[in-house]
Design goal:
mainly alpha, 42% helix, 5 helices, 10% strand, 3 strands, 125 residues, 3-stranded antiparallel sheet
């Protein structure tokens, strides 16, 4: 008989509520800081190559993608790296080096925050 012990599996922590970078556009005017944050995200996504890379990572199985799996966007590898760096600087991607490859991930709170930004605020009761 084996003396091995089964360890319980932990569910990944998912925040119940996501604090978006900014309120919905229809709720109130942005502060200067909120406008800077939102503009940085939209500016990063305003380039077609960056938008394709962001989409490739977000839609990849498991929610993360190796740079080797998403680099076929019609530009050179150094240009892909440049665009991925810009997406990271805007807070839209995170990355982790595993051996010689870098894996990119769109964190669920980022997508949720972007979605909340573009929603219509509920009417006051």
């Amino acid at each position: 008989m084996s003396n091995t012990k089964m360890l319980p599996l932990l569910e990944p922590e998912v925040p119940e509520t996501v604090a978006p970078c900014c309120p919905p556009l229809t709720e109130r005017p942005f502060t200067a800081e909120e406008a800077e944050t939102a503009a940085r995200m939209f500016k990063a996504l305003g380039d077609p190559v960056r938008l394709r890379l962001f989409s490739a990572v977000a839609s990849h199985e498991g929610g993360e993608a190796c740079v080797c799996d998403i680099s076929d966007v019609g530009v050179s590898q150094p240009t892909v790296s440049h665009h991925l760096k810009k997406l990271k600087e805007a807070g839209l991607l995170t990355s982790e080096r595993r051996g010689t490859w870098v894996y990119y991930r769109v964190e669920p709170p980022v997508l949720a925050a972007m979605g909340k930004l573009l929603t219509i605020a509920p009417a006051a009761a």
